[in-house]
Amino acid sequence: xxxxxxxxxxxxxxxxxxxxxxxxxxxxxxxxxxxxxxxxxxxxxxxxxxxxxxxxxxxxxxxxxxxxxxxxxxxxxxxxxxxxxxxxxxxxxxxxxxxxxxxxxxxxxxxxxxxxxxxxxxxxxxxxxxxxxxxxxxxxxxxxxxxxxxxxxxxxxxxxxxxxxxxxxxxxxxxxxxxxxxxxxxxxxxxxxxxxxxxxxxxxxxxxxxxxxxxxxxxxxxxxxxxxxxxxxxxxxxxxxxxxxxxxxxxxxxxxxxxxxxxxxxxxxxxxxxxxxxxxxxxxxxxxxxxxxxxxxxxxxxxxxxxxxxxxxxxxxxxxxxxxxxxxxxxxxxxxxxxxxxxxxxxxxxxxxxxxxxxxxxxxxxxxxxxxxxxxxxxxxxxxxxxxxxxxxx
Length: 394
Known about the structure:
Elements: E1 2-4, E2 7-10, H1 14-25, E3 30-33, E4 50-54, H2 58-63, E5 75-77, E6 79-84, E7 96-99, E8 109-113, H3 114-125, E9 131-134, E10 139-143, E11 148-152, E12 155-159, E13 161-164, H4 171-175, E14 180-196, E15 203-209, E16 212-219, E17 228-236, H5 237-245, H6 248-259, E18 266-282, E19 286-287, E20 290-292, E21 298-299, H7 307-322, H8 331-359, H9 364-378, H10 381-391
Parallel strand pairs: 1-12, 2-3, 2-13, 3-9, 6-15, 13-20
Antiparallel strand pairs: 4-8, 5-8, 6-7, 10-11, 11-12, 14-17, 14-18, 15-16, 16-17, 18-21, 19-20
Helix pairs in contact: 1-3, 1-7, 7-8
């Protein structure tokens, strides 16, 4: 027996899962397949991983019905400090400060624990009407001009469109022979959380250092740790590996070299995570009855925390374009999606790439130029507001 759906999505991560729920909520019959078992991802223990969710990304999470179901409260980002410096020295006095009140009442975004999104997604995916979930499972996909055929174990399905949401190593993208350009950074991110003495006051910090950006992101406190922040510690590959392997005491000393006394006494909260960094972009976003979203289409440097937000914005655009469509796999609709998203994503990728290369250097003339640039933006309200709206995903 073959079961018919409108859209099949391969990959139930935050982007694929949210897209599936948003499409199903609008009446599309959705098949969602993921090779991983989703339940173990609901670990109730605090592990320090978090996402920066821009204000503009909240829309699709609300469509999916998961925003109000997050079990751990998101922490709003009200201010952002951008500073430049050298290791072990005070930041340059020429800095940039963003205040959300300059562009309205809404926060720039929120820091949300990774486990919180996963738990909300899993609860919704198992109960949503119009949605069939198969996980853990492998899907064998065959595409033709007329339809998509999928075999999942002993089951057979058909759909009018298949969405590749399986991440940077997308098998569907490779099967479609869609070209991919990769930009290596030779940097690795060490990700963890700290408990600290002083409140963060909902201020995020992006501190640029020669080895890579050092980001401090405000999180909602816990009963054990009232004041908590997430840290994204970027360094050259070898240095990051060395930092990751350090015992807690010398590791925290390295954190304090970069953070200073901004938050008072600090301690580790949760474990450390290691992520090699690179950027990539697909030559096109669609093929016959196939469309790419999220990391399957693009991957950017995490310098401004925009990776997941770009994926959510892909999902929002696709939901809007496919809303009410009789044939969601029609080439004209997929071309509209590519035209709407690829230029924006590519511009963000190049912008983040330029920022990282500009700030990850000790060359004195470049250091002077970028510090003067920060000071100039600080004194130009119109340009500053444009940067703030971009940070909000608007």
